# Entry
Amino acid sequence: MKTRKRNGTGVSERFLRRKSTSNNRKRRETDERRSHSAQKEIDAKTLWKHVEDVIAPQLRLPVIDRVVYMHLLRHSRLEGKRRLRFSIPWLAHNINLSTCPTREAVRRLAACGVLRLVERSKQGHVAEVRLPEEVRGVRVRARAAARAREAARKADPSNIEEVDFVKTLELRRSIHARERGRCFYCLRRVAPRLECLDHVVPRARVGCNSYRNLVSACMECNAQKGERPAEEYLRWLFREHRLGAAELRGRFEALEMLAAGKLRPMLPSLGGEGSRED
# Structure
């Protein structure tokens, strides 16, 4: 009886080990297929263009940060891995730099949202390397730029520079529509009944009613900004931790685009007048 029991137990253990090995093999094969599929979806040429044409100029990355970012992308996303375990000496050796500037570049990339440091220790780092379209601030600004180009295409360039956008209700609504329901300053969603127009250059400082000087804002930002210039108010929002560093840079870039006439609203039919907003 004892021998039979041991034999039965041995057969059961061998069966479980065999089953476990088979399951592990299937799991590895599934992971490899997924990694291979993810790798095929990423076009290295397009990725490089996005880094150079979108990420680098919008986040104002210095050369060292670009090199570090591209190297981490090469060893993570292009190999089908979302996360990468690496050490600063390994990274510095591969890109032929010393450890100090390499470590600072990793910190800057994490602050910009390009990397998400999951684990950090003296033994190494585990980071989630994000593609350009996965970086929050860049994605928002890319969509805003696309909307601005579409609005500029549809606008009538012959008379839009002379239009008083506070004159009619339809013209005021076109400024709100340009911002797509968000406050230009704090980027929060705003209910239509709480939207108001704000002058980037205050009327007290001879600000005009051109589309280049009007933005859609929430009532709170409109009241808090007062007669301050837009740049000064945006820096105040940053100091109050209501805007992040990337968002602050994005707002300054939006102000530059606005002043250059690149954020044109769609002109409605210039019909009847509505009541004037304050």
Remarks:
- The longest helix spans residues 2-41.
- Residues 1-6, 35-40, 270-278 have pLDDT under 50 and may be disordered.
- The beta strands are 83-86, 115-120, 125-129, 195-199, 214-218.
- The CA atoms of residues 13 and 19 lie 10 Å apart.
